[in-house]
Amino acid sequence: RIDTLTQAIERHPENAALYNSRGWYNFLDGNYAETVADYGRVIELGIENIDPVYHTSVYHVRGLAYVELGEKALAIESLQVAGEMYRASGESAGVEAIEGAIAQLSE
After folding, report:
1. Is the pLDDT of residue 76 over 90?
2. On the CB side of 48, how many CA atoms lie within 13 Å of its CA?
3. Which of the residues 2, 53, 68, 96 has the least number of beta carbons within 10 Å of its own beta carbon?
4. Which residues are within 8 A (CB) of 29 and not within 5 positions of it... i.e. 6 or more apart?
């Protein structure tokens, strides 16, 4: 899937949805630096250009990827944005998950 998405991105480099999908599959495959890069590109292109259901996950999963890379400060920053988005949408389970992750990183 990553190869197919990479080929599609080569043809459509301004398509944020393609980077979003590839970011997710990179995360699942343990390619954390690539996850961060792909989600960074989504943010750069404009998060409003992807399905709204994925907006929070861009920051949440990017934060988790930063954790795996040992980048605590960047992880907290990204997770805080996700937490604000969860809070704004009334998703209490998401808020709790983010607060727990940030608390562990802050120890």
Report:
1. yes
2. 0
3. 53
4. 2
Residue 107 pLDDT class (50, 70, 90 cuts): confident
Helices and strands per DSSP (H, E), number in the chain: 6, 0
Q: Which pLDDT band, with edges at 50, 70 and 90, does 28 fall under?
A: very high
Whether the Cβ atoms of residue 102 and residue 76 lie closer than 8 Å to each other: yes
- Asked whether the beta carbons of 35 and 59 are under 8 A apart, the reply is no
Using a 10 angstrom Cβ sphere, with 0-12 exposed, 13-18 middle and 19 or more buried, the burial of residue 43 is middle
Measured CA to CA, the distance from residue 97 to residue 100 in angstroms comes to 5
What token pair was written down for 53? 């259901």
- pTM of the complete model beyond 0.85: yes
Distance of CA 20 to the CA centre of its chain: 8
